[in-house]
Amino acid sequence: MTSYDVDLFVIGAGSGGTRAARIAAGYGARVQVAEEYRVGGTCVIRGCVPKKLFVYAARFAHEFEDSAGFGWSLQGASFDWPTLVANKDKEIARLEGAYRANLGRAGVEILPQRATVEGPNAVRLADGTRVRAKYILIATGGHPNLGLAIPGRELAITSNEAFHLPRLPRSIVIQGAGYIALEFACLFAGLGAKVTVVHRGSRLLREFDDEICEHVAAEMRASGIAIELDVTIAAIAPDAEGRRVRLSDGREILAEEVMLAIGRQPNTVGLGLETAGVALAANGAIKVDAGSRTNVPSIYAVGDVTDRLQLTPIAIREGHAFADTVFGAKPWTVDHSLVATAVFTEPEIGTVGLTEAQARAQGYRLDIYKTDFRPMKATLSGRATRTFMKLVVDQRTDRVLGVHLIGEASAEMIQIVGIVLAMGGTKADFDRTIALHPSAAEELVTMRSKHASSDLPEQSAESTPAI
Known about the structure:
five-stranded antiparallel beta sheet
């Protein structure tokens, strides 16, 4: 009978790895987790958590401006970047401690060092120790894509370094058009920086609904963010102001910082996966089946390292499903087809289900419902912003296939809407739901006309009840 040192060895203590380790240990498995940096992974340490804290900081500037229309007078308000960074670091340290404590209470042993795969059932630690494991789980996440081969590339930062800058840059050029690039563009702009977004394509957020992309671009431009499309960064050089950025069309931009947000790559280099014969995709992602198992039966992988959906809740669900299936005799798989997501731009985006283009490509005959209105808050604040909502409905069954929102609280709304879509909700279900007035959310259940526009330019849907 083969003897193992542990039942499960997890490489990587991010969201997916820690969930899998904790649940497996709860079933009585002997579990070890190797982490060479900090417990918590991308989301907690250098991703969605610190990013959201920075987003909150940036939004206060808008709140201060808007408050004047409601009778407030704020004098002498100022922003201090080092304070934000220091307080963010304290919160990240607290969260890391909570992650460590949860693993400890579950009986999981944390090994603070790098581990590599040495075979189907063996890993090697950085200190030379060899561990025999019945199962190995790879949960090493990803890293910012550094593959842009241009002169001066080393002068640019990524989202990793953005959280630790010694001071807020007065100006920054950001290359990219995904959610990371646009979120940082909006938060830096909100904190007072002059921001330029550079993108090689003709539109932002290519995975999102076309009208959402158009709306967010218009809102960003209105807030003073420059957006340069169909162009790339050709070179970066040092300059008295910080950086001199040469674009592919020959123009030059001066900025204190340059940030590359051109995607993320799986962390698989140097893990020894080839030793065990684990199959990888062209971009280095670990190939897995629906149950997160690789082509090697004893080795599994979850989270960003598999490049399925690079979202923290997905990694957590995949880790949980793995542990339930392998150690809890409760087999299940994660459904990646209907996932609510948000982009914390200004204003923020919430989306779930199919875009209009995706639905048409799949052969659906559609009814499209839309509303575009001035939010009630803007009637007194005077802010030139609009909320947009869109329902994509299957004409044959009346089932709502997708919901796409942009405006304040869209992220909060889309989580609840995701439940409705997961239950197979129809447009009739939306229609028979009583509206909550006054709220932006009521527009989701009051759209009656296809391609509807909910108000006149001077009106607010929230302040004008339907009669």
